[in-house]
TrEMBL record:
Recorded GO MF terms: GTP binding; ribosome binding
Gene Ontology terms: biological process: ribosome biogenesis
Function: GTPase that plays an essential role in the late steps of ribosome biogenesis.
Domain EngA-type G: 3-167, 177-352
Residue sites binding GTP 2 per the record: 183-190, 230-234, 295-298
Entry similarity comment: Belongs to the TRAFAC class TrmE-Era-EngA-EngB-Septin-like GTPase superfamily. EngA (Der) GTPase family.
Assigned keywords, A-Z: GTP-binding, Nucleotide-binding, Repeat, Ribosome biogenesis
HAMAP family assigned: GTPase_Der (MF_00195)
Residues making up the signal peptide according to the UniProt record: none
UniProt binding sites for GTP 1: 9-16, 56-60, 119-122
Protein name: GTPase Der
């Protein structure tokens, strides 16, 4: 289980510059398929063999200097709730501002590890200026400069050293597939789960308040046992009512990271909006299985909007990862709820499937022969062998004489061909081209 680091601080101290630096190296790998960075505010990083997620809270509460103090306060409180380590960034150029003091006041009360990072320490002179930050009452600090990267190694050392030990997951937690029900507030997550629980006599137990603070319900359906994770329950517990992107996304991070499958519930009357998209890409980035449920379908006038049009609209938004089940459901009328579960179980199976190397080569090498990678600078790329890697999520490697000449469009072509022949619906896949 990777740790979650939240970067907090007032605007313009350099949070996003630091964030970009932290996620840089890993990002190139994570986004090798889509080729785009979808979320400016969330990323994965690794240091000394420890993987962690980074959330730039400032990225969600973007604003100018007149950003409300209340907003910053909420941002910090949420970071305190959701992150394992809080990285508080201040700016040596500006020195301590009243808003820094506000944030420090909140952070002094926290039992979680808090790291104070003094940014923009571009030279030795500023090293001395940084001393004033002892006045924040947070103890020692680390100085760095996110633009040049100087000092960020030490910052990362300190960050990783501050990671708390995570409780070992129980045997059951390891073994049972986890289906997280995610979506923005009021999309109908709890209604969906309640409807399932209410009608489902196969339900086994309610495990409330597990080590992960989520509310898990164990299901036994279609001869298949799994935990349904209610993220709405987490929100309710914390009494956060705001319908802001930042909150629903941040609240989803942990649940998504711990899940195998994300059941993304959207509100049919509102469409596939910004928050839905953020949550979708968060799941995709984490290589989780995905199912989209368009809930409250009972409220939609079927003459004005057909499922086909609606579906097409969503698929447009999730390009290029369009191979995802989309179902139209109603938690109220219980329409297609079991179908939705069934689809989720199928995605779980898809994500687990392993294609035998011989079968994979037989099919893919023929495809490649009929449609080889385009020649570049008069050089021909030859792919002679390929296989699925023994990884938890589907990854495929193609061995080529000139791997650097195989560009994104061709990788996408390979991915499409894989999807045409094998069912990877709802499952993000990775394609790597390596030198043979
Ligand atoms: P955020 O609002 O906290 O996310 O801040 P940004 O990352 O957008 O940075 C605000 C400004 O500070 C930008 O103009 C950056 O170029 C600048 N900045 C960030 N890091 C450094 C640094 O290490 N040294 C200097 N001199 N400027 C920096
Ligand atoms: P959550 O915040 O995502 O857990 O959303 P809730 O389950 O609390 O639902 C938010 C509101 O939408 C409640 O008033 C529900 O009664 C309503 N709602 C949820 N699902 C449906 C549905 O399928 N049809 C209709 N008409 N209303 C729904």
């Amino acid at each position: 289980m990777s740790h979650i680091v939240a970067i907090v601080g007032r605007p313009n101290v350099g949070k996003s510059t630091l964030f970009n630096r932290l996620i840089q190296r890993r990002e190139a790998i994570v986004d090798s398929v889509s080729g785009v960075t979808r979320d400016r505010n969330y990323g994965k990083s690794e240091w000394n063999g420890k993987a962690f997620s980074v959330i730039d809270t400032g990225g969600y509460v973007r604003g100018s200097d007149d950003i409300f103090e209340g907003e910053i306060r909420k941002q910090v409180e949420l970071a305190i709730d959701e992150a394992d380590v809080i990285l508080f960034v201040v700016d040596v150029e500006e020195g301590i501002t009243p808003m820094d003091e506000e944030v420090a006041k909140l952070l002094r009360k926290v039992t979680k590890p808090v790291l104070l990072g003094v940014n923009k320490v571009d030279n030795a002179m500023r090293e001395k200026d940084a001393i004033e930050f002892y006045n924040l009452g947070l103890g020692d600090y680390t100085t760095f400069a996110s633009t040049s990267g100087s000092g960020t190694g030490e910052l990362l050392d300190n960050l990783v050293a501050a990671f708390p030990d995570k409780p070992e997951p129980t045997k059951e937690e390891i073994e049972l597939p986890r289906f997280a029900v995610v979506g923005r507030p009021n999309a109908g997550k709890s209604s969906f789960i309640n409807a399932l629980i209410g009608q489902d006599r196969y339900i086994v137990t309610d495990i409330a308040g597990t080590t992960r603070d989520a509310i898990d319900t164990k299901f036994d359906r279609f001869g298949f046992e799994f935990n349904l994770v209610d993220t709405a329950g987490i929100r309710r517990k914390a009494k956060v009512k705001e319908d802001l992107e930042f909150y629903s996304v941040m609240r989803s991070v942990r649940a998504i990271e711990h899940a195998d499958i994300c059941i993304l519930i959207i509100d049919a009357t509102r469409g596939f909006e910004g928050q839905d998209q953020s949550i979708f890409w968060l799941a995709e980035k984490n290589r989780k299985g995905l199912v989209i449920l368009v809930n409250k379908w009972d409220l939609v006038e079927k003459d004005t909007m057909s499922t086909r049009d609606y579906e097409a609209k969503i698929r447009k938004e999730i390009e290029p990862f369009t191979d995802v089940p989309i179902l139209f459901v109603s938690a109220h009328t219980k329409q297609r709820l079991l179908k939705a579960l069934e689809a989720s179980v199928q995605v779980f199976e898809n994500r687990k499937q392993r294609i035998p190397t011989s079968k994979f080569n037989d099919y893919m090498l023929k495809v490649i022969e009929g449609h080889p990678p385009p020649a570049l600078k008069g050089k021909y790329v030859k792919i002679k062998y390929c296989m699925q890697l023994p990884t938890p999520t589907p990854q495929f490697v193609f061995f080529a004489n000139l791997p650097q000449y195989v560009k994104e469009p061709y990788k996408r072509f390979l991915e499409n061909k894989i999807r045409e022949n094998w069912d990877f619906s709802g499952v993000p896949i990775d394609i790597y081209i390596r030198e043979k």
